[in-house]
Amino acid sequence: MVTVPGHQDRVAFVREFYEAHRTVIVTAQVIGVVSSAAFLAFALGLQRQDWVGRRPLVGLSGVAVAAAGALACVPPLVLCVVASSAAAGAISGLATASDLVDVALFAAIAFFAGSVVIAVNRVWVRALAALVAVVCALRAVFVLIGEATLELLAPMAFLVLIVSLAILSWRRAMRPVA
What we know:
By secondary structure, this protein is mainly α. The chain contains seven helices and no strands. The termini are far apart.
């Protein structure tokens, strides 16, 4: 959830940033790929819950989030490798690609949250999911226009939704069978 340089930043700054923080960025991207796989398993498991609607929206949107999350790791990893040697155009293009995959990720998260709104009948879960959907959709738009608005709030809202869904799933799983 750290902001990396994007298309609006100077090539020299992007290059210096990736050279200076290579280890941290690679570590974060590896964690991102693992998290995407874990989220995929979570979303598919969530779809099988009896309190989630029968339509496969939650599972499908979970696949979209996992794919976008994994894809979002690619431009920063490539930039870590080529930052010191690539041409200015390549650095600029990869910084732009990093922004665009973030747009895809926040759009996919908004789709997932919207799917939860449709699939789940608990009012508080629907309200939380609707809020997350709006915040993440707005974040996708803000990334497109180069604004930092909702930079921390959108990912944190998504985490709150995931933790809430996990706790709800866990509490339902712990109920004694009648």
